[in-house]
Amino acid sequence: MISISLCMIVKNEEDTIGRCLESVQNIVEEIIIVDTGSSDNTKEIALQYTSQIYGFEWIDDFAAARNYAFSCANKDYIFWLDADDELKDEDRKKLMDLKEMLDPSIDSVTMEYHLAFDEFGNVTSSVRRNRLVLRENKFQWIGAVHEYLEVWGNILNSDVAITHSSLHHDSDRNLNIYEKRLLRGEVFTPRDLYYFANELVDHKMYDRAICYYEQFLASEKGWIEDIISSCGKLADCYHELGNREKELESSLRSFRYSSPRPEFCCRIGYHFLSQDEIRTAIFWYKLATQYKLPGDNLGFFNHTCSSWLPHLQLCVCYDRIGEYRLAYNHNEIARSYRPTDPRVIQNKRYLETILGDSDSHE
After folding, report:
1. Residue 357 burial (CB count, 10 A)
2. Cα dihedral 324→329→330→336 (10° resolution)
């Protein structure tokens, strides 16, 4: 059985670090905490789980801090988490099982990262990341902000999921780091351009964000998932600016790089639904329901747009053209995901009235 070093970088995480460490303490052999300048009780809480707490002077460089944490590891594999991450019971068991059966020829293990949930507990946003890596390979983190772990070799895509449960974050920190780098005259990599544009969107600087997304796309050197995502982000910007045609154009632009993704299909479907072009909207919403996420996909994935949302919208569309049986069927699929959603319940009652109780009950 392999041994694992957990490596974390932290700062002022007293509200979440205990929960995080509690969820993994019986799975890993070593816990390494690198503190970048906490002024709260983070270190005191961490001391309840490990004595291996190191200081690291913050230099506006996440990769540097993570690489230092990795350099302190001593076990076979390195596992990394943020302080506001945790493993749920089911995933703790999966990780223990993985630990027992993992072939030591594996260089990296990817895990799902569940980022957001709806009110019914369904995952709405996720991404797959390299989480468990062979220490002897000395894999390095790259990028001062929105850093990534550069890996190669024999990679296993596992079914373990890490749950992100953030309570708060420094909303200006990353933007300020990018702005300082610009003032120093640094030339941004394509990845920097993309993530800087994302920060600008988060701060509602839409016109400026558009400029940097266009620079990123013009470089033709970005990761394919970032390229596709940037089309969606451009559509978001144009939506906020009230430019519906540019919003549609940005969604369609994504098809240059990949087959239609469900989030774009739903966006385009809504565009035509709002134009009362119902049959065209139906085409796009149906397409969204047919997408299957590849098991090795490392990009962000919007689960909402491939599960209940297109079916709820298809219910609306079919109702508009008098196809009430089809409307009912799609509402039932949406109900399987969101059984207590007031909209779904209302649709069910309304359509059962039209179809007649004996015809519509399961």
Report:
1. 8
2. 140
How far is 141 from 70, CA to CA, in rounded Å? 9
CA distance 300 to 103: 28
How far is CA 357 from its chain centroid? 42
Task: Say which DSSP state 29 is in.
Answer: S
Please identify, among 148, 164, 180, the residue that sits at the C-terminal boundary of a domain. Answer: 164
Give the model confidence (pLDDT) of 305-337 as tens digits: 999 999 999 999 999 999 999 999 999 999 999
- C-alpha 124: how far from chain center: 9
d(C-alpha 45, C-alpha 83), whole Å: 12
C-alpha–C-alpha distance, residues 281 and 273, integer Å: 5
Q: What is the Cα–Cα distance from 128 to 109, expressed in whole angstroms?
A: 10
Q: Are residues 297 and 241 in the same domain?
A: no
The number of residues in the chain equals: 362
Give one word for 15, left, alpha or beta, with left for phi > 0 and alpha for psi -120 to 50: alpha
Q: Which domain holds residue 143?
A: 4-164
68-94 burial, b for 16+ CB within 10 Å, e for fewer?
Answer: bbbebbebbbbbbbbbbbbbeeebbeb
pLDDT tens readout for residues 133-177: 999 999 999 999 999 999 999 999 999 999 998 776 667 899 999
Does 362 have pLDDT greater than 50? Answer: no
Helix (H/G/I), strand (E/B), else coil: 125: strand
Rounded CA separation 214/250 (Å): 11
| DSSP annotation of 260 | P
pLDDT of residue 235: 98
Which of 164, 192, 225 is the C-terminal boundary of a domain?
Answer: 164
| Pairing label, strands 77-80, 123-134 | antiparallel
**Which residue type is seen at 201?**
V
Domain identity same for 109 and 197: no
CA 155 – CA 158 distance, rounded (Å)? 9
pTM of the model as a whole: 0.87
